């Protein structure tokens, strides 16, 4: 591989001076529509494959229903949201759920070490609500402009057509925010036993808004009533030797025999501000909200009780988008959410067609029938307009046609102020802290599996990538870095002697590193919290 570096440009030949962040109003403000560099990058990425999905190509799905409890924890749900789907009890909202793997193609094995997609389409009386997430509660990156780079690094090499570990770790070694997700994925949690015994999460931060226009930040979670079960690499290899679609089979057969899988829908809630008391930004999707501070509050339950009649018409043509929200659920300024909201729907228009929402699997239920002034396009087969006057396909008009809905008594208005520019979050302490905490809270067998997987991968990587990855892992937890170095045959002292990544502060400058009571680390800046972590290392 050549070390010669050329300048990155846009497809128009313009030099890219910042490929790490979208333009936004201040560090925590919303992204803007004139994000030309990002829009050109993400829309080209959406069109890289036809006709299967670029990501989440391998999948299966099922129909079911959602029932709200009418409460969020011990409070009426209406305190936080005016969304009827979360407020009204005794109503069964139809749902369709698509489970998937992320990186592999349509016929890839379901035993792959990979995040699992968990996409839910709720067909509410107020229109569709799509909650598009994963089984793990975080992600690799926090700014959507990096998504094509991340997927390219994880997909097969364009020359060898093989997934090469060095490509994955080359990207991760230069992207410390990914360390937390890597720690999850390379542990047994990276291979769920099946789709029924798997958690789900919206991953991104959203907002709940009540009828008084008051907003709260929220994270959404699906907790399986069947429990959670994961596989070791050896168990996955044994299954894969006889069946590459075991999870699809398991879900289908469970529903056919009447063993309907069920999940409890939970939320975490915090006030709608920047929370400077936290070591992380609550809009950062690479971080988990600590459940001791922000507990999982039950909101409702979801049951899957019917298999698709036609996999292509339903599962493959089902189309989801993070921008598909109902009143009472709103966007936060999470930069991954803002970028996904453009990308997902753009992908569906390209992959399925501009009228993908006319397909029965994607159309809202009859009580919320779509009526727009949009017309025609490829594969249009009905006009979604008011039958009263089909001549009028514009608004306003004095001759009939569609009109705007009534405005609520109080609307949610977000105040935004800041300088327009490209910003990376300055609160990166938990790029290392949360990954280290995750390592320490795993059971011993999970840690053994994690270090064996990462160490085995690093054996196949060039030395610069090996050393940098061990440097990162040692800063997450000294035992984590040491064990991986031993397995991969990497000189730990050489790795520890590396300087910080160019342009990024050293972890020790970001957080008070833990002083472990078993002597694993040598620091003088421990906090009481860090010392407690060290004393309880290994506890589940």
UniProtKB/TrEMBL annotation:
Keywords: Heme, Hydrogen peroxide, Iron, Metal-binding, Oxidoreductase, Peroxidase. Residues 9-403 form the Catalase core domain. GO terms for cellular component: cytoplasm. GO terms for molecular function: catalase activity; heme binding; metal ion binding. Residues 1-23, 498-540 are annotated as: Disordered. SMART domains: Catalase. Heme binds at residue 344. PANTHER family: CATALASE (PTHR11465), CATALASE-2 (PTHR11465:SF23). This is Catalase. It comes from Noviherbaspirillum pedocola. The lineage of its organism: Bacteria, Pseudomonadati, Pseudomonadota, Betaproteobacteria, Burkholderiales.
